[in-house]
Amino acid sequence: MNGKFRILLPVISLGVLLAAVFYLQPRAMSYFGLNLLFNLAVPIALATIAQMMIIMVNDIDLSVGTFVSFVACVTATFLNDSPLIGVLILGASILAYAGLGALIHLRQLPAIVVTLGMSFVWGGLAVLILPSPGGAAPGWIRTLMTVKPPLVPMAIVASVLIAALTHLLIMRSATGTLLRGVGGNTKAVARSGWEIAKLKAGAYGLAGFFGVLSGVCLVGLTTSADANIALRYTLLSIAGVILGGGEFTGGRVSPVGAVLGALTLALAGSFLSFMRLSPDWQIGAQGAILILVLAVRLIFSRKTSGQGGAA
Amino acid sequence: MNTLSQSLSTTWRRPWFWAYVASTAAFAATLLLTEGRGGGELLSAAFTFAAFSAIVGIGQMFIITLGPGNVDLSIPATMTLAGTLSLKFMGGDASLILPGLAVALGVGFGAGVFNYLLIRLLRIPPIIATLSASFIYQSIAIWSNRGLRIKPPQALSDFATGATLGVPNVALVGIAIAIVAWFILERSLYGRWISAIGQNMRAARLSGIPVQLMFASTFIGAAVLAGLTGYLLASFSGGAALNMGAEYLLISIAVVVIGGSSIAGGNSNVPGIWGGALLMFLIVSMLNSYGLGAGVRLIMTGVIIITIVAAAAGKEGSR
Known about the structure:
The complex is a heterodimer of chains A (311) and B (319). With 311 residues, chain A is mainly alpha-helical.
């Protein structure tokens, strides 16, 4: 799949799903309706971008969900009560992420296991900070997340901004090219004089940064937090990256696609509740939608490359 | 004497050795606190709970052996579905224990076939395929469960919680499966083939190994083991719960890696699975007995997993 077709599929799947929603519920085709549909899209999109940074360097992060939950707990407690300490904690957690990236490279550790271990650590910290659901969202983030821009709802404006900025950072900047190079051909990047450990630390640090943004935005929407608030984000973020045309190896990722993938997943959730589907089947239907989109992707890749590439 | 010292000197170099050392240390640290009381009970509980982790871990190990990116994320959902459907089928009737087992294994088989077909026909990476499929299994379990908690037949419940000659029955099942798995991995053509696939898929395919057949049987085998674990766990805990499989996603992967199998595939071992499974339980019970809260316990578990993996990887790197 070349770059142009890579972005086509997430665009089409989002379009088809949106059309289906509008067909079922024409009233959704309004400012208010769109706002409701994409309500939780921003934190999911940010978590997906975080996951993409890790997948970009050929690793996978199984701790995104617990990390975002941890950030949400910090936001609803420390960041609200004593902002300075809150900022320090969040800054330290980004550094921890960067440190993990360096450790994973230097000791050649399997990222899947290290992040698995970290998911216990973040989960434990979250429980310590907020043993029972509660806390309160800082006023400024609450204001930011509920702002009502003219014409287009906040969630969509924010998604476009996230997509544009990360696109510039990853696809257009020298740093982004280098980071994708680590995923594409680590040896070549190392031989041309770059220190891989630093680059990996950079990619993981970026993941931590976007994870922090995701948690902060989430609390802005929910106004309170608990230690399990974002556990499903781990799976959602991986699915979002893949839906967006990203691949697990080779540094082939697409920030715009990832944001679109996240929007599709967020919309799939809203779509199912619009259909008055029994709650029993909501999760299953999300799985089915995921499979369907990936099946369509197969047809695309067959058509464009003339043969089915490796799975 | 010579051979004894020789085997001793090679034992500590085995990849699974450190999992057992750490398990023994955690066991000793717990007994230190209780001044040696309750050692038997702790050991019996450890073997019971480790058995559940070991059985799903063995299935996961075979999949991980196939190479990078191969992992089954649907194990918890398959366990839950198999536990739910088999208990519903038996409805507490002791005469249906064996047919109930067949239902659980059949659910596992079906899930394995579905997982494999997604991977093969739709060319979806296994992580995403098993993840999407697990959502569907979970929905079926929720739909069929309806919040009811059906008790297992008394005889089955007695078996799952009972012991033979002092060894918990569940542990006996787990050890038997481990022995069979060891034989398959180390002594059979199948084991050689899946290791070869994990080491170099292209070379394996060119040398005539039926790669797709190996993938299919491995994914199906792992799902069948998950089904069996769901059946045993539901019987052990007096009914199926919708979240009963949740913790086994992390555990099934963690025991494989702690046990010294290579996460990159191609190089696995069975004894390590039991070592890792025992360690995972003993760490938690050690931290529990030291009176640490849930938060600290989680953090310590995570730190210990990462430390063990970092230590093990260092040895591999110097090789």
